[in-house]
């Protein structure tokens, strides 16, 4: 059998945001690039296929139902599949249209520090790269709970997104961001949802008032949240767990395992490349995203950093600067990175919580207002979403904005204004006195920052 051989300036393993953007940028400059993706169903990476895009498509559809209806859920699944298929095709074409870029579909493993063996449907391809970027992403963790493995009722978020029939009862293992997003979404579609969380509260990283407001919204939407729950076994659709030593159970037509994600590195042969990894499988990188092999980089979920698509995009900027720039850009430049829980309304946060700021010894001023009582923010009422609260934490001595938590309509957009303020030293007074469009959610800062105490 003849083994095809390719040589490239850049080889990327995985079609995620950072890798594909880097491949497109260097390919457009005439550099020889080979992109390796193990599945044709993953062109474009996790976000557009099984992550951000399909989940938010399903959330949007759930928010615009006239009434909960299994057929509406099925229609949303089909519409989401069409959306991701279209984006997948566009992402493939983005690279395939470049004369100096080859896209290989198959599994890759290192044979040495510069060489990969790629198993494709047409046979093995040996790829040698001057530089190699690992971008294989992450996958759901499936713990060793008796009865979990091999159970046809047990699903991951990936599985559930393509399940066409709405489960009448859904049990969610884990009250983190993935678990709560799916819990809120499926409750709106009409499922009976139970969340089992092992900690004493969900959203423990948030201030108590913010977490309480979000929990109240989830409960009002029909989500039953059980905290301090230790899952002991699963028997078909029955989940057995204990709370304070007492045995309990929950029934589900589907059991969603949302207990975190781990880097996909097990089959890459990183030991043969001499690339160091941590105990969890994540690739060890420096502030420039280089591994201990200077020509090998790791971007996105696989390097142990924050698992956000927009962080992966920033990873691309750092690596591009290493390969064709000044080489000065690093992860140390990354400040005020916001994140969002897409419940309804979404919870967005950036910077320090009040609790963290006080623990840091700061003197702070705080404003926290229910959206429903903010008379100068009619936008939330116009769209029929007056629930939630807004909170901002400010340094009492410098007027520096330290952080904000926005549980409100359009918070996933508005939080970026706060993030920009944190990055560029815009004070609370300046943000308070800005001129904003009306009616918009951004003009909330006029009233919210005016309420600092």
Plain-language structure description:
The chain is an alpha/beta fold and 453 residues long. It has three domains: 4-138 and 261-333, FAD/NAD(P)-binding domain; 154-257, FAD/NAD(P)-binding domain (3-Layer(bba) Sandwich); 339-451, FAD/NAD-linked reductase, C-terminal dimerisation domain (Enolase-like, domain 1). It contains 14 helices and 21 strands. The chain has helices at 17-28, 46-50, 52-63, 70-96, 157-161, 177-189, 208-220, 270-273, 309-324, 354-359, 379-382, 411-424, 428-432, 444-448; strands spanning 4-13, 33-37, 101-112, 115-120, 123-134, 138-140, 154-155, 169-173, 192-196, 223-226, 229-235, 238-243, 246-251, 254-257, 261-263, 296-298, 339-341, 347-351, 364-370, 389-395, 401-407. The strands form five sheets. The protein has a five-stranded mixed β-barrel. A five-stranded parallel beta sheet has the order 7-14-8-9-10. A five-stranded antiparallel beta sheet has the order 17-18-21-20-19, with helices on both faces. Helix 1 (17-28) packs parallel to helix 9 (309-324), helix 3 (52-63) packs antiparallel against helix 4 and helix 3 (52-63) packs parallel to helix 6. The protein is globular. The chain starts with a strand and ends in a 5-residue tail after the last helix. The model has no long low-confidence stretch (mean pLDDT 95).
